[in-house]
Specification:
Number of strands: 25
Helix content: 10-25%
Order of helices and strands: HEEHEEEEEEEEEEEEEEEEEEEEEEHEH
CATH topology: UDP N-Acetylglucosamine Acyltransferase, domain 1
Distance between the termini: 36 Å
Number of domains: 1
CATH class: Mainly Beta
Strand order of the largest sheet: 5-8-11-14-17-20-24-25-22-23
Largest sheet: 10 strands, mixed
CATH architecture: 3 Solenoid
Length: 251
């Protein structure tokens, strides 16, 4: 990537040849050069008025919304969705309106991005992931060394769940509707009777639901106050797999 300009980086991001983050030896590594190039693209961009299909919109001249063809194998249903320049969307992905996939994001084969879902800048979504309605995958460009949100293969993200601050969801995990995951809040594993350190990856095949815990403060206890926290209540089995199968007929 040495001496590669931001235009070439955006082109390679769209083909999937470059990624803002990539798996390495069981972990994920941030490609800081890619993120730096995206920032350069924003700095180089000038606001323009788009015409034609984008009538009335104003944005950076060099980061327009992408347009797809049938040859690319992406199904983007009409109705207000947008995939920005520099985002990769693989064959077999379905995008339901309105949804938004930002620059530097990566969405792998067979995944569904449902209505009102956000795939933030540089977020990484694996194969056969169901990103349900109103799910928010936070984006991150700065600091350039910070990991983006990572969702590995075969995960299910329930409606309205929020993933931010570079949280990683390991393969096969299920995030229940309304669950909020960030590095600031510990996850309680009720199966293995332990508290995961803040910022730890959600383990493979974990089923995570929103929960609460008492606040260790006499006044809070007197007032009956509790803090919200994610709970792992089980790990996926055949029954949960059957209930989470994507409808092939819809594809």
């Amino acid at each position: 990537m040495i001496n590669m300009n931001w235009e070439k980086v955006l082109d390679l991001l769209e083909t999937g040849e470059l990624r803002a983050a990539e798996p390495v030896d069981g972990d994920w590594r941030v490609n800081t050069e890619v993120k730096a190039a995206i920032l350069e693209a924003f700095k180089a961009g000038k606001n323009i008025e788009y015409s034609g299909i984008y009538e009335g919109f104003v944005d950076k001249h060099n980061l327009p919304a992408r347009q797809f063809t049938t040859q690319q194998g992406v199904r983007m249903v009409p109705g207000g969705s947008s995939v920005r320049r520099g985002a990769f969307v693989a064959k077999g992905v379905i995008i339901m309106p309105p949804a938004y996939i930002n620059t530097g994001a990566y969405v792998d084969e067979g995944s569904m991005i449902d209505s009102h879902a956000l795939v933030g800048s540089c977020a990484q979504v694996g194969k056969n992931v169901h990103v349900s309605a109103a799910v928010q995958l936070g984006g991150v460009l700065e600091p350039i060394g910070q990991k983006p949100v990572i969702v590995e293969d075969n995960c299910f993200l329930g409606a309205g769940s929020i993933l931010v601050e570079g949280i990683r969801i390991c393969e096969g995990a299920v995030i229940a509707p309304g669950t909020i995951l960030s590095k600031a809040v510990a996850v309680y594993d009720c199966v293995n009777n332990k508290v995961l350190p803040k910022g730890s990856p959600i383990p493979p095949n974990a089923v995570v639901i929103p929960g609460t815990r008492p606040i260790n403060n006499s006044w809070a206890e007197e007032m009956g106050l509790k803090a919200s926290c994610p709970l792992i209540i089980k790990y996926r089995d055949k029954n949960s797999d059957a209930s989470l199968e994507l409808e092939d007929a819809l594809r």
